[in-house]
């Protein structure tokens, strides 16, 4: 028997290794990755419009476009499409596929569907063929929908006598101790007082996790939301529905002056008659909290007293709705006019500017001060 040297043996081994070495599955082309060889991708549809020579021109021509050959009731889809490409991603555009009817195709005759109401984790469920410990999978009859009691749904299909792997998805609401299944929390599944502030982690609920109109006033218990639980600028004006916050919904002393930013509440934001005397606590409004550039009026008609911040001449007047005709007035420079009566026939005392006058009817009887 001929012998070969160790060197020759090593050469032959290296050559053998080169011949059987595995080739890379993907390669980088530019800034993208592609498969080295082309792959055939399959897609399915229940109906196709405007089908011509295996092609459609618009995505809307494909009804129920999906990557599984069976619908949720276990019925084979009417059309199958082929797409050959080196892309590592399957196309989601039905116009990329060449379509053919599945009628009469060999091998596309079987699918299996099961459900379980187990509340175990996905990795603990196993599958209908090899169920996890304590997990019961129940078959779903052909043509039937997924039962309402289902939490997990499993399906597989057969092609050319070969079963595909099981596909398991969450379909029912269920809350675990440290995770949520999709659509796990719905309003009628949460008991009254079930969720307290102590059970909500900081930053656990983001704005984009709350659907529009998901939380209504009837679902918020009294004193649930306090100032310390609301971040600055968390609630903007655009986030409050009209009439969503009423007086009855605000606890006494819940909003204090220090919690209202300057300029937040303007006259245009207060509805007419929204604030009545019964709504203002005693001693709640002091002179240090009032700033008026318009007019504050007490009384009606000519039986009034006015503090006027808008008049060009007068600041205070009483006894007449027109400042210049009022028996008592104070000009903005401090000049005071006092008349004990405005009737031309009655005796009256008039103090105006730097003079004091006494009239009997319309006749001046006494004048003190500037005699000009």
The tally of structural domains comes to: 4
Number of strands: 19
User: Percent range for helical residues?
Assistant: under 10%
The span between the termini is 154 Å
Radius of gyration, taken over Cα atoms and rounded to an integer in Å: 43 Å
Low-confidence stretches: none
Query: H/E element string?
Result: HEEEEEEEHEEEEEEEEEEEE
Class from helix and strand fractions: mainly beta
Concise synopsis of the structure shown:
Helix content is 5%, strand content 27%.
Describe this structure in words.
With 372 residues, the chain is mainly beta. The chain folds into 4 domains: 27-101, no CATH class; 110-170, no CATH class; 204-280, no CATH class; 292-369, no CATH class. It is 5% helix and 27% strand. It is built from 2 helices and 19 strands. The chain has helices spanning 6-20, 122-125; strands at 26-29, 32-45, 47-48, 62-63, 79-87, 98-101, 110-116, 138-139, 152-159, 162-163, 167-170, 295-300, 303-308, 314-318, 328-331, 336-339, 348-352, 355-360, 363-369. It has an 8-stranded antiparallel beta sheet, with no helix packed on it. Strands 7, 8, 9, 10 and 11 form a 5-stranded antiparallel beta sheet that branches. Strands 1-2-5-6 form a 4-stranded antiparallel beta sheet, with no helix packed on it. The chain is elongated and about 150 Å long. The N and C termini lie far apart (154 Å).
């Amino acid at each position: 028997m001929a012998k070969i040297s160790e060197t020759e043996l090593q050469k032959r081994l290296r050559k053998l290794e080169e011949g059987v070495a595995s080739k890379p599955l993907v390669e980088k082309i530019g800034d993208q990755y592609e498969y080295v060889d082309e792959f055939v991708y399959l897609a399915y549809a229940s109906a196709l419009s405007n089908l011509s020579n295996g092609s459609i021109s618009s995505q809307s021509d494909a009804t129920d476009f999906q990557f599984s050959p069976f619908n949720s009731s276990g019925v084979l889809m009417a059309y199958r499409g082929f797409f050959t490409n080196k892309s590592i991603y399957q196309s989601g555009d039905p116009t990329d596929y060449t379509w053919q009817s599945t009628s009469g195709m060999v091998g596309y005759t079987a699918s299996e569907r099961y459900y379980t109401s187990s509340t175990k984790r996905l990795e603990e469920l196993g599958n209908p063929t090899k169920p996890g410990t304590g997990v019961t999978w129940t078959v779903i009859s052909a043509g039937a929908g997924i039962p309402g009691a289902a939490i997990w749904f499993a399906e597989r299909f057969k092609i050319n006598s070969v079963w595909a792997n099981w596909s398991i998805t969450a379909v029912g609401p269920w809350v675990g101790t440290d995770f949520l299944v999709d659509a796990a929390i719905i309003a009628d599944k949460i008991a009254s007082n079930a969720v307290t502030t102590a059970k909500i982690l900081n930053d656990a609920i983001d704005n984009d996790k709350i659907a529009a109109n998901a939380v209504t006033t009837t679902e918020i218990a009294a004193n649930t939301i306090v100032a310390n639980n609301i971040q600055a600028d968390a609630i903007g004006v655009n986030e409050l529905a009209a009439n969503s916050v009423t007086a009855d919904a605000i606890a006494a002393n819940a909003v204090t002056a220090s919690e209202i930013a300057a300029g937040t509440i303007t006259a245009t934001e207060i509805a007419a008659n929204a604030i009545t005397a019964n709504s203002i606590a005693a001693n709640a409004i002091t002179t240090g909290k009032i700033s008026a550039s318009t007019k504050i009026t007490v009384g009606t008609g000519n039986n009034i007293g006015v503090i006027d911040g808008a008049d060009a001449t007068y600041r205070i007047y009483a006894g007449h709705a027109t400042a210049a005709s009022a028996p008592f007035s104070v000009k903005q420079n401090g000049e005071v006019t006092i008349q004990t009566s405005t009737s031309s026939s009655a005796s009256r005392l008039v103090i105006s500017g730097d003079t004091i006058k006494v009239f009997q009817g319309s006749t001046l009887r006494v004048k003190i001060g500037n005699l000009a």
